[in-house]
Each structure stands twice: as structure tokens, then as C-alpha cells.
């Protein structure tokens, strides 16, 4: 608990799997479903920022603007 963070956010695997991995995945799924039900459209709010990597092309940031669907609580 006192060591500095490394920025690694994976859940691990095998004997090193995170004890909270299943609940974290369930929470993320619930959040994304609730959010998707309240959004009509997503549009770019700026250019994507890519991570420098030789093998895997991935984004570090993807700014988006959400337009509420009009159902449920406001965003």
C-alpha cells in the first residue's frame, strides 16, 4: 500500500487476478448501460490523442460531446 503507483490498471490473471475484478466489471457494465440509455448522440469534441506504441494503435483520450435523449435524469 505504500509503494508508488505504476499506472498499471489491469485486473491480472491466474493466481494474480484482482479479487474485485468481477464486481468492477459488473459496475462498469451497469454504468455504461445506464449512460447509453440516456444519450441520443455522441459527437467528437476535439481530436483524439493516440498513445505512442509500435504494435498496438490505441487512444489516450477521445473527447466526446453527449446529447441527452430526453429520458431519465439529465446529464
Automatic annotation (TrEMBL):
Name of the protein in its database record: Cytochrome P450
Family: Belongs to the cytochrome P450 family.
Top-level lineage group: Bacteria
Transmembrane stretches, start-end: none
InterPro entries from the UniProt entry: Cyt_P450_CS, Cyt_P450_sf
UniProt-listed SUPFAM superfamilies: Cytochrome P450 (SSF48264)
Amino acid at each position: 500500500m505504500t509503494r508508488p503507483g505504476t499506472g498499471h490498471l489491469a485486473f491480472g490473471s491466474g493466481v494474480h487476478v484482482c479479487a474485485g475484478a468481477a464486481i468492477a466489471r459488473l459496475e462498469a457494465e451497469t454504468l455504461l448501460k445506464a449512460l447509453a440509455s440516456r444519450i441520443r448522440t455522441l459527437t467528437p469534441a476535439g481530436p483524439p490523442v493516440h498513445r505512442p506504441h509500435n504494435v498496438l494503435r490505441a487512444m489516450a483520450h477521445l473527447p466526446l460531446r453527449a446529447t441527452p435523449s430526453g429520458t431519465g435524469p439529465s446529464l
